[in-house]
C-alpha cells in the first residue's frame, strides 16, 4: 500500500483537482490512501471567520458565504449535473453546521481552542468529500476515511500530540474492515479521547500522511505539492534554487525544522521509524522525479544539502556575573521556558558562562520573559542576573548537510560570505550532530543572507552583481550601453549576472522593483517617469534594497556624490568611482575610505581616476603586492593636454584647439582643471598615495603654463583670456620647436616628491611619440630599474573610461 498526500495548491480548484485525480488513476496507486489538504487558502479564511465572529465582526458571514460559493462552484465544475446533488447537499450541510458554530462564537464573544479546531476542520472535511464524490462519479471505487476517527490525539487543540498505539490500531481496523483498496482521507484533523475534533498544527496534512503510512506499513509516502521536491533553498526567494534529488531523513528533518515549508517537520519521524521512503513530487510536473528522502546519506555531490530560514524570531539573553561557575542556571532557564511551553529553537552559551542566549518564536516572547524573570526573581533582586534581554525582528538561517562533519571550514566560509555582504550575525549555533550550522541575523537581512549563502555554496561559479549607477552623462550612458551589450556574454561565459538595479542623474532616480532589473535598453524612457533625484534618497534606497553584491558606481564629477562613499562602504556596498574627487581629497579622507573598505571587506576601486581605461592603478598595485618598490614614476597623464599640444602649432589659435578638445569630450567640465595642471596633480598624487606615500595637493610643485588672467571668471571668460594671450602660447610652442622638441605636460614622482609641468621632449624620449589623447606612465622600480614598466594608450574618452569602470565593476566579484 502507498500513502499519497496532495497539498492546498494541488487541490485549490476544479482544474487542479482534475490533475490530482489523473495522478491517482495511475495503476501504481490502486492500493493507496490519498490524504488531502483543504482547498488552498481555506484554512486561513476559516481562522479569520472564527476570530471575526469572536470579535463581533459581522464580516465573518460574508466570508462564509464566499467559502460556500467557492466549494459549490468546485463541485459544479467537477461533477456531471445529475451526480451533483448528494455532494452539494453534503457541502451545504457542512456550511449549516459552520454557521451554527460561528453564531455561537459570535454570541459568546470568545473562540476557544476546541471550537477553533472544530471550525478549521471543515476545510479538509469539505475537500476530501468533494474529491471522494468526484472520483466515485468517474466510476472508480473508493472509500472515505474519517481521520477524526482514525487518528487519536491528546487534547492539545491546535497542536495535538498523536497517540500512536491507539491510532495504528484504529487505522488498521478501518482498512481491514473495508472492501476498498483506494481510500481518501482528510489531512490535518484528528480527535481526542472525548471525541472532540483536534488538529495537528499548521501544515499538518503532511503529518497525517505519514501517520497513515506508519500504521499500514506503507511501501512509500508521497507528498505532492506545487514545487519539484525539496530544494536547495526556498524557490520563492532564490531564483537558482534546485531540486535535491536525494536526502536522508535527518537532513530533511533539519531543513524542515529550520523553515523549509515544503514538508511539515513532524512528518519525517513516523516514516523514519519504519524506514518508509518519502517522495516529494510536483502535482504540476508529475513526470519530474522530485526528492527521495530515505535512510541513506547521499554519497556524492555537495557538502551542503540545503539552506533554510525561519522568520519571526526573538533572542532572549540571560546575563549576569552571578551565573559564573554556578551549576543549574541553564536548567532553571529551560525549565521556566518549558513550563510555559515555549519552544526553544536555538541555544548558545558564551564560554565565559556569563550569558546564555536562546532563540524563540516572537509570539512566545511575553510569556517567556515573564516566566524567566519570575524564575530568577531572587537573583534579579540581588543583581546577580540582569532582567531577561529581548531582541526581536530577527531570523534564523541554517546550512544543512550530513557531510559537514567531515569537511572543516564550512562555518568560516559561511560567516565570511555573510560578512562580505554586511550581514551582521547576532548568534551562532552548531548542532552537536554537526549536520547544521545556524545563525541569527536581522529580519531585514534574511532574504539577502539566503541568497548570499546559496551563491557561496551552490552557485560557486554563478555570481550576481547589483549595480547602482550615479550619473548617466557621457561616461555613464556609455557604461549602460556596454553593460547591455555584454550581459548575455557574461552570463553565458563567466556565469556572471550583471544587473543594473538603480540609475540616478542630477534630476531623476530610478530603482528596480521587487527582484527585477532595469531594462537597460529602455532606461532613458523609464527615467522620464522616475522619482526626483535626491542623493541621500538614492543612497538610502540602495541600502534599503539590501541586495547581495551591491556596487555603487560614481560616474559623476561631483563632490557631493564623492561624499557618500563612506556611508555606502560601511554598509558593505562596493564603490567604483570614475569621479576623482574622493581619492584626491585630503589624505585623511582617502585613507578613511581605504580603511572602511578593508574593515567592511568590500572593494573601493577607482582605476579610471588615472589614465581612463588604462590599467595604471591596477599595475601599480600588482607591482607593490608582489614585493616590488617604486623608485620613480614619470607620466603624461592628461589626455586633454596631450591632445592640445599634439594639435597646436600656431596655425590655429590655442583657444580653438582647447575648444575642440572640450567638444570631443576629453576635458573636465571646466577645462582649466586640465589646462592649469590640477587634474594631472590629482593623478600623480593618487599614484603616489597608492604607492604608499602620504601626499597632499600642496606638496606637489606645479610649474603651470597658463597666465594668471586665465584663472579669473567663468569658463567663457577663460576662452576670451586664452585668445588675448595667444602670443604667450605661440612663444611656448616656438621655443620647443626651435630645439626640435615637442611640448608635453609631464608628471613626475621621485623620492617622495611630486611635480608637474610643461617640458621640452626630444625625439629620443619615450614621451615623444605620444599621439592624440594618449597617456603614458613609466614605472621605474627595483625590478625595472633602467627599462621602466610602460603603460601606454588612450587616456581619455567616454568609451574607454566606461570600459575601465566596467572592468572595476567586474573586479568586485573577485573573492
Ligand atoms: P502544500 O500546500 O502543498 O503543503 P506548502 O505551501 O506547504 O505546500 O509547501 C510548498 C512551498 O514550500 C513551496 O511552494 C515553496 O515556496 C516552499 N518552500 C520553502 N522552502 C522550500 C524548499 N527548501 N524546497 C521547496 N519548497 C520550499
Ligand atoms: N490546511 C492546513 C493548513 O493550511 C493543513 C495543510 O494544508 O497541511 O495548515
Ligand atoms: Mg504544506
UniProtKB/TrEMBL annotation:
PROSITE patterns: ACT, ASPARTOKINASE, HOMOSER_DHGENASE. Keywords: Amino-acid biosynthesis, ATP-binding, Kinase, Lysine biosynthesis, Metal-binding, Methionine biosynthesis, Multifunctional enzyme, NAD, NADP, Nucleotide-binding, Oxidoreductase, Sodium, Threonine biosynthesis, Transferase. Pfam families: AA_kinase, ACT_9, Homoserine_dh, NAD_binding_3. Pathway: Amino-acid biosynthesis; L-threonine biosynthesis; L-threonine from L-aspartate: step 1/5; Amino-acid biosynthesis; L-methionine biosynthesis via de novo pathway; L-homoserine from L-aspartate: step 3/3; Amino-acid biosynthesis; L-methionine biosynthesis via de novo pathway; L-homoserine from L-aspartate: step 1/3; Amino-acid biosynthesis; L-lysine biosynthesis via DAP pathway; (S)-tetrahydrodipicolinate from L-aspartate: step 1/4. GO terms for molecular function: aspartate kinase activity; homoserine dehydrogenase activity. Its EC number is 1.1.1.3, 2.7.2.4. The keyword Transport does not apply. Its cofactor is a metal cation. Bifunctional aspartate kinase and homoserine dehydrogenase that catalyzes the first and the third steps toward the synthesis of lysine, methionine and threonine from aspartate. NCBIfam families: asp_kinases, PRK09436.1. PANTHER family: HOMOSERINE DEHYDROGENASE, PTHR43070. This is Bifunctional aspartate kinase/homoserine dehydrogenase I. It comes from Parasediminibacterium paludis.
